[in-house]
Specification:
It comes from Chryseobacterium formosense. With 379 residues, the chain is of the alpha+beta class. It contains eleven helices and nine strands. A hairpin with a 3-residue loop joins strand 2 and strand 3 (147-158). The longest helix is centred in the middle third of the chain and has 37 residues, at 231-267. The structure holds acetoacetyl-coenzyme A. Acetoacetyl-coenzyme A binds at residues 85, 89, 93, 123, 125-126, 132, 134-135, 158, 178, 232-233, 236-237, 239-240, 313, 362-364, 368, 371-372.
Length: 379
């Protein structure tokens, strides 16, 4: 692992930092308050190449490496964790899965507009009764010859109300259990496909989370991804990479809160001195800085392993498990350091604390990450 960032990596980091400061920061409090999706900002992120960062330019992507992705995700999430999850899902769960496993026709038709940011995508695995226990899919895709008939409900789908294309996981042959599951590309607007309720969330309120309802939706056979029965393995492979995205989002939330807390501690005075001169505060900041650095290293390790084509189930799970805990701990302490100011919206850290919590839940809860890690180390 090389800790020296290249010119290109530093450039993308700076571009994402400038974009976040100039375009995301100005109305981030209002978007959180009003649950407003950052439509214009996401459009610009697409134009900057941030929505298909690692995709081959021949399919509309920016052709960058995964370390660049971690760097850019951190900068976006420092300021706006909602914009960061839109970016993570489109890059990791949608574009990466299509680039690796879709047919050439599917790549031309769907990956190209998604990677170039003309449209965004969503990944629909979770259901009302299948979250962590992802093999218990109740959504069915009945094989009808030249098409599948899709029926069921998906829950908590990021980009659910704004996506144009959805990767939907469904059970075709229950007797075969997870080997009977398939993944499909479904287009918004197809007959029988309805966007359900928007969730009113604790955090990442600028992101758009919906249920999806499928009522006899005809999905052409050519929209199945991979061989018959490949859907569950597809979802697991995609989620391994997705966990690097969410780990980087958590890292960004933590480092954003840390930077604000450090700045505040250097200026706020109590007992005749800046509060950073009180060991009780300085030690909190020391812990934050150490843990954030460790989280960043885990993200880089998983990203380097991904680019080297290695199995990233363990390193991706470790990065997400650790970085999401650091995001939670750091944001709680950042609110504490800010005292009464930390509890009001204007100082940003209360939003970051609310945003941090989801990183311990989606794309596999912390408990699921421990299952993945423990299975990997006991092989
Ligand atoms: N990488 C690759 N393959 C994996 C894998 C991994 N991390 N974990 C399991 N698999 C494969 C297994 O090898 C097995 O395949 P084969 O039969 O071909 O060998 C298959 O998956 C089934 O595995 P298990 O028997 O181990 O299945 P299980 O029922 O015990 O569950 C699990 C495994 C790891 C718990 C899995 O169900 C899981 O990851 N659950 C969490 C689901 C999740 O992360 N959901 C997030 C929703 S998406 C989201 O949040 C997006 C968003 O909007 C932000």
């Amino acid at each position: 692992m090389d800790f020296n960032l290249s010119e290109e990596q530093l450039m993308i980091q700076q571009a994402a930092r400038d974009f976040a400061q100039n375009e995301l920061l100005p109305e981030v409090i209002e978007r959180d308050r009003d649950q407003k999706f950052p439509t214009e900002q996401v459009k610009k992120m697409g134009e900057m190449g941030l929505l298909g960062m690692m995709v081959d330019p021949k399919y509309g992507g920016a052709g960058m490496d995964s370390v660049s992705y971690v760097l850019a995700m951190e900068e976006i999430a420092k300021i706006d964790a909602s914009a960061a999850v839109v970016m993570s899902v489109n890059n990791s769960l949608v574009c990466a899965g299509l680039e690796k496993f879709a047919s050439e026709e599917q790549k031309v038709k769907y990956l190209t507009p998604l990677a170039s940011g003309q449209v965004i995508g969503a990944f629909a695995l979770s259901e009302p009764e299948a979250g962590s226990d992802a093999t218990s899919q109740k959504t069915t895709a009945e094989d009808k010859g030249d098409y599948y008939l899709l029926n069921g409900i998906k829950n908590w789908i990021t980009n659910g109300g704004t996506a144009s294309y959805y990767i939907v996981i469904a059970q075709t042959d229950p007797e075969k259990k997870h080997k009977g599951i398939n993944a499909f590309i479904v287009e918004r607007g197809w007959e029988g496909f309805e966007i359900g309720l928007k969730e009113d969330k604790l955090g990442i309120r600028g992101s758009d989370t919906h249920s999806l309802i499928f009522n006899n939706v005809k999905v052409p056979k050519e929209n199945r991804i991979g061989e018959d029965g490949f859907g569950f393995n597809f979802a697991m492979a995609v989620l391994n990479g997705g966990r690097i995205g969410i780990a980087s989002q958590a890292l960004g939330i933590a480092s954003g809160a840390y930077e604000l807390a450090l700045k505040y501690a250097k200026t706020r005075k109590a007992f005749k001195t800046e509060i950073i001169n009180h060991q009780a505060i300085a030690f909190k900041l020391a812990d934050m800085a150490t843990q954030i650095t460790a989280a960043r290293m885990l993200c880089f390790k998983a990203a380097c392993e991904k680019d080297a084509g290695k199995d990233i189930s363990e390193s991706g799970a470790m990065a997400k498990l650790y970085a999401s805990q650091v995001a939670m701990d750091t944001t709680i302490e950042a609110v504490q350091i800010h005292g009464g100011y930390g509890y009001v919206k204007e100082y940003h850290v209360e939003r970051m604390m609310r945003d941090a919590k989801i990183t311990q839940i989606y794309e596999g809860t912390s408990e699921i990450q421990k299952i993945v890690i423990s299975r990997s180390i006991s092989k």
